[in-house]
Amino acid sequence: MLESKIHELYKDAQSKAKKEYNRRKSMGQSGHLTSLDGVLKDIDIAGNVYLGTHEIELGKIVGTYYHTRRMTFSKHFLPLESERSEFASKWMALCEAHLTEGIRDPIKVYEYLNHYYVVEGNKRVSVLKYYDAYKVSAEITRLIPKYDETDETIVLYYAYLEFYNQTKILDLWLSRPLRYKRLLKYLSDYEVAGIEPTEKYRHFMKEVYRPFKRIYLEYGGDTLSTTTGDAFLLYAKLYGIPQSLDASQVRAIMPSLVKEYSLLNETEETEIITDSDEVDRVPFFDAISTIFLPKKIRVGFVYARTIKSSGWTYSHELGRRHLEERFSGRVETAYIENVPEDYSAYDHIKAFAQRGFDVVFTTSEVFKRATIKCAVEMPKVKFFNCSGSRPYVHMSNYFGRTYEARFLSGMIAGALTKTGVVGYTATDPNPEVMAGINAFALGMKMANPYSRLLVKWTGEWNNPRVTTDLSRRFVEMGADLISNKTLLVPRDVTIEYGVYSMLCSIDPSTGLPKDYLASPIWKWGIFYEKIIASILSGTYQKMTSGTGDNQKLVNFWWGMETGVIDLYLAEDKLPTETQRLVKLMKQMLVTEQLHPFTGPIYDTTGHLRVAKNEMLSAMDILNMDWLLDNVEVIDQEK
Where does the record locate the signal sequence feature (predicted)? Predict the structure, then answer.
């Protein structure tokens, strides 16, 4: 009876193999199994490492080692040989063993680029794959290709090897090299009471990662391009790594997370709105319908620091007041200030958002992580974070193209410096800050080709003491002008626009400002007015919905032509000729006759970053991670 059943099972497996084989052949593809000896034909192997016996996923076994073996299997390891062959007899015997006592003996495999190729045990793998088994015991020998920095696959694999060497975690794969470093950072802070440090990675896999993977796959993770490791990294970013996974909590947020995962690697799905006209284009009937909306929209603002103590916060407060005036009676606003600039911001933002707000603006990049966490948990609220970073399905970003105003400020600095050296204080090397530095440096070079820009990372913003200390250091190195000098005293421009830092000349004897010369100006009210108008009209919802079930990531990134960014000039301190030049260049920026990042542009290593007459795209600028050739980062202590 069992023998007859086993025979029918083989015929069924063979039938499926032939269908798969014929389907691939009709598409001009090979219908046989991949062989590693063929894959390695032109590959330089740097070494091999025996890893011992481990449980591995059958889904990651993609081929056999020997070319001669590949012809007996279809692409998915099902048998192609005749049912009367010796091969078929052995396959059926293994099938019977699997059904009666289980396949226990480990197979032998080579691991190459995070996939497995069978050396011994091809038929065992075939039987287990027919039954959709999940894992098999295997002796693993790792083949390591020679490093090649031009091969993205090998670069990624070496990042995985570094991760493995520190953790000995075998079956966690990420799609980008930098993500391994990020996960290692989270794991370095991961501690479990009663568990030795050497055992914490094993505990992590058993109690956290594998339970997360089961839930992720349960919600359709296997249909996404995002690896389970990528998905977990986003979860860890929002929630940290728990000692053991709370399955009910993960299931509650997984539907929202899956929407984020669907676009995690798809940067081309990001809609960078560089023209405010795109949110102003409201169909006539949509515009009419909003007039009769009975519901008042409630808009909340989250501030770091207080309105009185921070120019940045004050500038956003001016925007909130503008919004109330513009939509009197239709928009109700509220704010919370002095929210901690650390992970505890999540509790404050969530409690604030739960008060029935329809829209919440968090006005600093330091709130990005807390904001997306709240947005995932409260998908009915529209969240916006003020930063130039990557947006999310549940959280859009808004920011200005400050590099345009920085470019003009740099021109002023280049024109006025007598030493040819200018200092620049910056928070940290994130893309938005680096784009501003580079634009400033380009403006300097345009006015003075031999000028140098000295940059120091401060790790914080809006701190007069820090920038004063740095001023003295810059002066010692020859600088006579400093950009981003935090204002020490209130000024008219501070009250009018919320300006908190400027380009200024420095008294070399004291390190204190002599003259405040220029500064980028934010007019957040225009941002808030246009974004809320687009929500009221339904335009924003249409922009984010995309097509079908796909959602778009939206980054509002407007420039000087919209009026959200401008440049304050101390006209009584600047030469008339300099003012004329800056105003002419500003007009060219506004009318798009000039793009600051037009090549040729070289970085600090002399590498050509932008070719002659080419322009950087919005995405290139938003992801900038290099500095211009006339920029020098200094160490304050030296």
Answer: none
Q: pLDDT class for 545, splitting at 50, 70, 90?
A: low
Query: Is there a contact between 601 and 609 (Cβ–Cβ < 8 Å)?
Result: yes
**Cα–Cα nearest to 316, from 297, 296, 329, 333:** 333
The pLDDT tens digits for 131-156 are 999 999 999 999 999 999 899 999 99
Read off the amino acid at residue 526: I
Q: Evaluate if residue 544 carries a pLDDT over 60.
A: yes
Q: Are 65 and 119 in contact (CB under 8 A)?
A: yes
Q: Over 50: is that where the pLDDT of 629 sits?
A: yes
199: exposed, middle or buried (C-beta count within 10 Å: 0-12, 13-18, 19+)? Answer: exposed
Neighbouring CB atoms inside 10 A of 534's CB total 22
Residue with token string 């908190």:
500
Measured distance CA(296)–CA(536) in Å, rounded: 10
Section 362-373 average pLDDT: 93
Q: Is the pTM of this model over 0.85?
A: no
Q: Do residues 405 and 569 touch, judged by C-beta distance below 8 A?
A: no
Classify 364 as helix, strand or coil.
coil
Return residue ranges of the chain for CATH 3.90.1530.10: 1-146
Give the Cα separation of 138 and 541 in Å (integer).
51
The CATH code belonging to domain 275-399+525-562 is 3.40.50.2300
Round to whole Å and give the CA distance between 164 and 187. 12
Number of helices (H), then strands (E), belonging to the chain: the values are 24, 22
Instruction: Region of 305 please: left (phi>0), alpha (psi -120 to 50) or beta.
Output: left
Residue 258 tokens read as 């899956």
What region, left, alpha or beta, does residue 484 occupy, with left being phi > 0 and alpha being psi -120 to 50 degrees? left
CATH of domain 1-146: 3.90.1530.10
Tokens of 23: 């389907």
**For position 553, what pLDDT does the model report?**
75
H-helix or E-strand containing 501? Answer: strand 501-506
Of residues 438, 420, 456, the one with CA closest to residue 603: 438
pLDDT, position 337 = 96
Q: Does pLDDT of 231 surpass 90?
A: yes
The CATH number corresponding to 402-524+576-633 among 3.40.225.10, 3.40.50.2000, 3.40.50.2300, 3.40.50.150 equals 3.40.50.2300
CATH 3.40.50.2300-classified regions of the chain: 275-399+525-562, 402-524+576-633
Cβ neighbours for 273, distance < 8 A, ≥ 6 positions apart: 279, 543, 554, 555, 556, 557, 558
Name every residue whose Cβ is closer than 8 Å to that of residue 364 and which is 6 or more positions away in sequence: 303, 304, 312, 341, 386, 387
Look at 211-220, 323-332, 390-399 and tell me which has the smallest mean pLDDT. Answer: 390-399
State how far the Cα of 247 lies from the Cα of 229, in Å rounded to an integer: 17
The pLDDT assigned to 287 comes to 41
- Pairing between β-strand 382-386 and β-strand 421-426 as defined by DSSP bridges: unpaired
Position 378: which residue type? M
pLDDT, one tens digit per residue, over 421-431 is: 999 988 888 88
CB-based contact 490:535 (threshold 8 Å): no
The residue to which tokens 């568990």 are assigned: 195
**pLDDT at res. 495:** 52
